């Protein structure tokens, strides 16, 4: 997990989305072992729908959607 956080932090800073002073990661966070497909589904639903109003989300545009390299485009669907 440390390597993933390190690389993500580097990418955020390279894109000027974070500065050296920003605290990006919580210490340890909330760790829970998901032991069944049902538990995984509940966790995903909580992340997507149980944390208040939605933030802007993006989907990857593929070559079928538009020529050129894949890009991220805002979704227009609202959950509320």
Keywords:
two-stranded antiparallel sheet, extended, alpha+beta, 80 residues
If you had to describe this structure to a student in words, what would you say it looks like?
This protein has 80 residues and is an alpha+beta fold. The protein is built from 2 helices and 2 strands. The protein has a two-stranded antiparallel sheet with strand order 1-2. The radius of gyration is 17 Å and the shape is extended. It starts with a helix and ends in a 6-residue tail after the last strand. The mean pLDDT is 77.
Query: What is the N-to-C order of secondary-structure elements (H for helix, E for strand)?
Result: HHEE
Helical content, roughly? 25-40%
Proportion of strand residues: 5-15%
Report the average pLDDT across residues: 77
Enumerate how many helices there are, as a single number: 2
Helix and strand content put the structural class at: alpha+beta
Instruction: Give the tally of β-strands.
Output: 2
Strand order of the largest sheet: 1-2
Q: Using the alpha-carbon principal axes, give the shape.
A: extended
Instruction: Give a short account of the largest sheet.
Output: 2 strands, antiparallel
Summarize the structure.
By secondary structure, the chain is α+β, with helices and mostly antiparallel strands. The chain contains two helices and two strands.
Task: Show the helix and strand layout.
Blueprint: H1 2-14, H2 37-49, E1 58-61, E2 71-74
């Amino acid at each position: 997990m440390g390597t993933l956080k390190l690389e993500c932090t580097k990418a955020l800073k390279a894109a000027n989305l974070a500065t050296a002073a920003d605290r990006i990661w919580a210490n340890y966070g909330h760790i829970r072992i998901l032991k069944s497909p049902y538990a995984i589904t509940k966790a995903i639903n909580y992340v997507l729908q149980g944390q208040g109003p939605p933030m802007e989300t993006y989907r990857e545009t593929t070559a079928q959607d538009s020529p050129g390299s894949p890009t991220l485009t805002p979704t227009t669907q609202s959950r509320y």
